[in-house]
Amino acid sequence: MHPVHRLEELLAGAENLMIVCHNNPDPDCLASAFALGRIAIAVGIDEHHILYSGDISHQQNRAFVNLIDIDLKPFDPAAVQDRPEESLLAFVDHAVPGENNRVPEGTPVDIVIDHHPNEEIEAQFIDHREQIGATATILTEYVRELDIEMDAALGTALLFAIRRETLGFLRGVTSAEYDAAGWLHEHADGALLRTLSTPSVTGATVDTIAEAVRNRTVRGSVLISGIGRTSERDALPQAADYLTTLEGVETAIVFGIVKDGIQISARSTDSRIHIGNVLDGAFSDVGTAGGHREMAGGEVPLGIFAEYATDDTQLFAIVDQVMSARLIAELRLTAETDT
Predict the structure, then answer these.
(1) Domain DDH spans what residues (predicted)?
(2) Disulfide-capable partner of 24 in 1, 42, 54, 307 (CB 3.0 to 4.6 Å)?
(3) Closest by Cα among 211, 222, 130 to 176
(4) Which residue range(s) make up the domain with 261?
(5) Same domain, yes or no, for 179 and 297?
(6) Does the reported pTM lie above 0.85?
(7) In the prediction, which pLDDT does 320 show?
(8) Is residue 337, in this structure, part of any structural domain at all?
(9) How many domains does the chain divide into?
(10) Which helix (H) or strand (E) holds 27?
(11) What is the pLDDT of residues 128-187, one digit of tens each?
(12) Does 284 lie in the same domain as 184?
């Protein structure tokens, strides 16, 4: 039996579905939640909600939500804990309560559909495929198998998510992504895809990327850059993506203070490095971090750092020193080279 038919049976017995996105959801998470909502409608669930916490601040993500017209609602922990028995709780593109989401630890989850590495998943229905390049690929497989009615919004959402998650079929891509994209091509809106692929960029985002370039240090093929405080959380992965294009750089790690936490984004094309494991090893004792071999992220609460500084300049000097030292130790880096 195809996994989606087990999911179909589970959904058929529910009256309500709560789909929880991970913090600061990206197109892969949003499109997957959108598709799961369509599946819920098709099997007869009267009410479903797509919930998120954090921010949708990346210009591409904002355009995605607005142009695809995804109905998102802010996440309320109380609503999840007090949900009726006939309600199901689903995670897409993440897997464990309390990890990259605001769901209280220990909360029972009914459905998990994800492609990120994780060994602690518990749910009634689990479809966890680390080898797949995008969660949207799995959901595309579902809508095909169930013959869900397709329209331009759903087709465009899934195709854009797969393209974005794999960096245009260059990162973590498998034959499943090509197969899904070939099928989705007939259902997607080409003009909308182009619009989503070229959103306007704010001056603040450009400034953040410029700061990452200015503050870079390079050791071997590893680049580390701290950018201070920024309101542009989603500029960090954009900066990491850009910095890996510099000659001689195979691994780029960018971190900065966003609100009351230190956000980290990393990219690597070095086959010797699993960047998700590197971040986990460096920061799991003080925050949450991890991801794939080529792409990872994390967050460390400011916590004790803030007690030793009276202004942002002093605070970030401490943060920069500690974060860089942990990364250098975990990567076993040696002498600094020219920047």
Answers:
(1) 17-161
(2) 54
(3) 130
(4) 204-331
(5) no
(6) no
(7) 93
(8) no
(9) 2
(10) helix 27-42
(11) 999 999 999 999 999 999 999 999 999 999 999 999 999 899 888 999 999 999 999 999
(12) no
Q: Which residues contact 142 (CB under 8 A, 6 or more apart)?
A: 4, 7, 35, 36, 39, 148
Which of 210, 207, 213, 238 lies closest to 225 in space, CA to CA? 213
| Same domain assignment for residues 320 and 211 | yes
Give the CA dihedral 100, 49, 31, 60, nearest 10 degrees: -70
- Residue 7 sits in a domain whose CATH number is 3.90.1640.10
Q: φ and ψ at 136, to 5 degrees? A: -60, -25
* Cβ-contact 189, 69 below 8 angstroms: no
Summarize pLDDT for 299-337 with one digit per residue, the tens. 999 886 777 666 788 888 999 999 999 999 999 997 555
Measured on CA atoms in the order 153, 154, 155, 161, is the torsion positive or negative?
positive
Closest CA to 179 of 169, 165, 171, 170: 169
User: What gap in Å lies between CA 239 and CA 225, rounded to an integer?
Assistant: 9
**Tokens standing for residue 175:** 């034959």
Same domain, 37 and 143: yes
**Of the residues 165, 197, 229, the one at which a domain ends:** 197
| Domain membership flag for residue 107 | yes
Nearest 10 degrees: CA dihedral of 255, 114, 15, 34?
70
Question: Do residues 101 and 217 share a domain?
Answer: no
Close Cβ partners of 242 (under 8 Å, ≥ 6 residues apart):
209, 212, 213
